[in-house]
Every structure is written in C-alpha cells, then in structure tokens.
Amino acid sequence: MIRRLPLAFHASLGNRLVLRSGSVVENRLRFSTNQQKNNQDSTFHVDDSVLVKNDVSWLDRNGDTKVEDRKKQLFLNEAELYGENSRVSVLMELTDRVGVLHDVLKYFWKYDINVTRIESRPVQSQSHHDFGKTNRKFDFYMDFDGSLEDLAVQKLMKDLGPLTHKLLVLDEKDVHWFPRHISELDLIANRTLDAGVDLESDHPGFKDETYRARRAKLATSAMQHTWDQPIPHIDYTPEEIETWSHVWDRLEEPVQKYACKEYLHSLQLLKKNCGYSRDNIPQQQDISEFLKRRTNFVMRPVAGLLSSRDFLNGLAFRVFFCTQYIRHHSKPLYTPEPDICHELLGHAPMFADRDFADFSQEIGLASLGASDEDVQKLAHCYWHSVEFGLCREDGKNKAYGAGLLSSFGELEYACSQEHVGESKSPEIKDWDPEVAASQEFPITTYQPVYFLASSLSDAKYRMREYCEGLQRPFFALYNAQTNTIHIDRPVRRSKGAPTNA
Q1: pLDDT-based confidence at 79, cuts 50/70/90?
Q2: Phi/psi of residue 483, each to 5°?
C-alpha cells in the first residue's frame, strides 16, 4: 500500500534532497526552474549482481538449522531473511524543471511500488557555469521495494526510461560486516584484542597465579555465553568483595557531590532492585533484567577488550559488552583496564536513563557498516561523552561519563572549581560531536579536555544530528520486537566478516 509522506515539500533541485521513508512521496513536489521538456534520448542499463548475496549464518527460528544450509531455496536473500522486502537501487539523471520529480513518482504510484529513499545531487560533470541555466542536471538515487523479476518493476523501469537521460540499476555496495540480528553478536563477542588473561608485566596481578586463574575462569565463562542465555551467576570471593567495598567507600562522597542527577537517581534504583551495596557485588543478570524493563538495554559478558567497531556495533542493539573480572586486590584504587567496578558503578546506572540509552544507541547505529575513518570518529565521540562526558546542572558541571564516575580522583579534578589533582586545569569545551570526533585523548592520565553538554537530552540530539550528517552507506533502524537491524538499501557485508560467519 502506498501512503503519503507527512510533509509538504517545495524546493529547488539546487538544494541537496534526502528523503527516507516507508512511503512514497506523493503529489505536489515542485521545483522552481524551467518547464523544458525532458530529453527523450534516454538509456536503460542493468548492472550485474542484482540479487543480494546471502552471507549470514545465524540460526533460524527453530535454532537447529544454519541459514547457510538453506541457500538453495529459491532466491533466498538477506531481505527475506530479516523480514524485509527486496529492494532495487537506481540512479536517474534528470534535467531540472518544474514538476520533474512528480512526473517520476507518479509511476511508482501507478504500479503500487513503495519508495524507501530519494537522494539528489548535482551531476558532477557539469561546469560551475551551468548552474542557474535551464539545462542543469541532477542525479537522483532511489531505493524502492521489489526486484527486477517483478512485472510491476519491469513496467516501471520501461516507463521511467523516456523521462531520464540515464537510468542505471546499481549493484549492492560492499560494506564492512555488521550484525543484522542480535544473535550475530555471538560472532564478534569473542574477537577480543586480549583474552582477558593476557596481563602485561606491569599489571598488579601479573605474578599472582590465583588471580590469573580466576581471570581465566571468568574469561572462559564469557566466551561460552550466547545471546539467548541468561548470564551465569558468579560467586564472588571475600577478597573480591573487599576490593569492591574499598572502591565503593572511596567513590561515595565525590559521586554524591559531582554526579549528574540522572546517575544518582538510577543508582538508588539499582540499590533497591539489583542488590547494589558496599558489601555485595550485584549480578549482571539482575542488572540486565532491570535495565531491559527500564530502557530495553541489556548487559552481555565479554572476556576482554573488543575493537571499537565490534563494541559500538553491540550498542546498536542496546547491548553493552561488560567485563566480569575485578581489579587486583593489592591496588583497589587502580586498574589498567575496564573491570566490574568501572562497568557496574560507572556505566550501568547511566543505561537506566532513557536519554543516555538512546544517545549510546545512536553511536552504535551509526557504526554499522561505517568506514574505518568514521568508526574512529564515533569512538572519539564515545570517549568524550559516554566515558568522560560532563553536563551542566543548576549552574555546575556534573559528570555522566563512566570513566569519571568510577574514578574518584578524576571526578573531582574534572568537576571541582579547583580541579584538584593536577597542576594544570583542564580545558572545558562545549559538546560538539564534530569537534569531539577529532579530539585526541590520553588513556593513562587525566583528560586534558572535557566536553560539556547543556543536558543529556541536548547531548543526544546533537549526537543524532552529527550521525545523520555522516556519509553512511545506509540508514539503519533497530526493531526491538525482532531484535533486527533494518536497512534502507541492499548491501553486501563483505569486508572483515567473522571467520565463523
């Protein structure tokens, strides 16, 4: 069924046009130049590789049949697999005139074909002097439901030919592999940069065989976890609880003074619902169930550090990869890597806040299929916000970043007027993802630069605006009911695919 877009649109082709929808654009789309007739000398060409290739391997609904084993079924592709319609992507070259887009879209209406994306750009080969003239041309990129085997699509293409100077069916774009269903997180969860037990020689627990054996046991448990299973219960030792208590006691006062109100509210809820206290390390399954009820976020055990791409991909599904080990008891106020004190005291409370949860997912969705360069930009934004972000509250700077909320020393340094702990005060910049994306940072010292948002809501909307401006290979939406990522155009997930995919 073709529906009308909830907008009225009148513009010149001189402006870049980007529309994404589950509906076709209908009726009075007018463009403010000449009414010259279209050139009837048009071409129609179909590139190879029209069908989307199937490169996935997650289990089907019955859980016992690999999707790869069903490849031989007629025309099985990713669109069908993920509950989407097949799509065709085309490039049309049009001459700018009044009503040109209306003349194109009426055929989609005629054949009951749903447009999912329209994007226009000036033809690059034209001279700068051509702008303002009556014969300037624009490339229109359009995605729509259907396949070239459909009779309606064949008739549509035949009718569009005379309207265009050029009509090309585009191949699917090759992009970096990304998970389409939450079960595919199983394919990347164990691609750790370290195994969780490979301690450096300067690690406080490097020579402690008991500690290393404990880390190995927890790493094995995390690596055996799958997306549809509850997180195993961990019996923390008295020594581990003592370390947790030491950190809890040292953080309690500065957190009450410098943490944002959203964090403090969520921490109280976690105390009430998940057993947070100085004498008890909460279970990740209890936290995960609570967060799912609050914001639809969940925790997932991980054995060690993941790459930026894999970690951010998890956020797209509202999944937070979480370590299960704790720092060494000999130095309870120091850790060279994220541990449960950082994860459960720094991150988990913030995921109970809707704006923060949405903010985190925005970064995750933008990372799907993104270039290495854009993933690095997003990782920088993550660092300067989710890890070390500040927000303004009642005229004071408050912390919402987990790296601050789990470090009493840096929390006071970043938020106090005296900036206690260093001889030089940090630079406080307004939250601007464009700037944060290129701001370098140290990982072993206090941050020299912090970014300050006016509120968590403001941080979220500015991040969303930044992500929308990236040159993304597709637009992604998360379907919480099916735990599936919907994309608005066909692509091939061919780069950097997991070895077991």
Answers
A1: low
A2: 55, 40
> Among residues 90, 115, 133, 107, which one has the least CA distance to residue 24?
115
Q: Residues with Cβ < 8 Å from 205, sequence gap 6 or more?
A: 199, 211, 212, 215, 328, 330
pLDDT of residue 126: 52
The continuous run of DSSP H or E covering 95 comes out as: strand 87-95
pLDDT of residue 134: 55
Query: How does strand 17-20 pair with strand 87-95?
Result: unpaired
Instruction: Give this prediction's pTM.
Output: 0.76
Q: Any idea which residues carry the catalytic annotation? A: 342, 347, 387, 406
Q: Pick 333 or 69 by higher pLDDT.
A: 333
**Per-position DSSP letters for 164-212, written without gaps between them:** -SEEEEPPPEEEE---SBGGGGGGTTT-BSS-SS---TTSTTTT-HHHH
- For residue 12, give the amino acid letter: S
**316: its two tokens:** 């797209």
Among residues 30, 27, 37, 36, which one has the least CA distance to residue 11?
Answer: 30
The DSSP symbol for 232 reads P
Separation of alpha carbons 363 and 318, rounded Å: 11
- Single-letter amino acid, residue 122: P
